[in-house]
Amino acid sequence: MDIRARLHNRELIRLDGAMGTMLQAAGLRLGENPEVLNITAPEVVHKVHAAYFAAGSEIVYTNTFGANAHKLARTGYTPEQVITAAVEIAKAAAKPWGGLVALDIGPIGELLEPMGSLKFEEAYELFVQQIRTGAEAGADLIAIETMTDLYEAKAALLAARENCDLPVFVTMTFEQDGNLYRVQYPRHGADPTGPGGGRHRHQLLPGAKADIQPCRDAYRLDHPACYHQAQRRTAHGAGRQNLL
């Protein structure tokens, strides 16, 4: 599957749905780190990926949303261990279906300056660690998702563009008035961009259309994890209900 060619042709690409809620349904307890399951219970993660492929997904996101050094600091595992395992699990699930694997990268979990204490350069290096590991493990593309801070999204996107040659997806989550959501990513080389988390679809589309319209080379990405009412697979992804 040539992701960039399909985006250029404006084709629909079916993604998966949420990972966290699926793991909770499979027994993940409140407060447990879901990324650690890549090592302690790989069969559970594999089952989620396989269910999404069976439901029609063409791309699944690895179970690495929080697999950065900051969030893994107290788990006893490194990002290299967790991410490598996650990519291997997803690739194994994808093989029978001819599917692709996206390295999932979420927020670091600490605010960047000036709202917080994390420096832009420090955030960049945390993302570089994740992206290099995922690319070396065999991920087919990078998925930067559910970002609430454009500055942090920029750090992640620059880390991806400067440390691998894989396609990069970017999604943001934003307030109901849409003030946070501004499509600046094509200037930094994202492939598709769009909303991913936090609101119903009818609240997302007006802002997404308005922001992407001026960018001729931008492609819209809708990830189904942002649709609270997802009940079944749609053209944009597999809903998370009744898959296991």
Account of the protein in words:
Mean pLDDT is 82; it is low at 181-187, 210-216 and 226-244. The chain is 36% helix and 11% strand. The protein has a 6-stranded parallel sheet. Helix 4 packs parallel to helix 5 (79-94), helix 5 packs across helix 6 (120-137) and helix 6 crosses helix 7 (150-163). The chain starts with a helix and ends in a 24-residue tail after the last strand. With 244 residues, it is α/β, with parallel strands linked by helices. The chain has helices spanning 3-8, 20-25, 37-40, 42-54, 79-94, 120-137, 150-163, 201-212, and strands spanning 59-61, 100-105, 141-147, 168-172, 192-195, 219-220. 45% of the residues are buried.
Shape: globular
Class computed from helices, strands and strand pairing: alpha/beta
How large, in whole angstroms, is the Cα Rg?
17 Å
Which blocks of ≥5 consecutive residues have pLDDT under 50? 181-187, 210-216, 226-244
Layout of helices and strands:
Elements: H1 3-8, H2 20-25, H3 37-40, H4 42-54, E1 59-61, H5 79-94, E2 100-105, H6 120-137, E3 141-147, H7 150-163, E4 168-172, E5 192-195, H8 201-212, E6 219-220
Parallel strand pairs: 1-2, 2-3, 3-4, 4-5, 5-6
Helix pairs in contact: 4-5, 5-6, 6-7
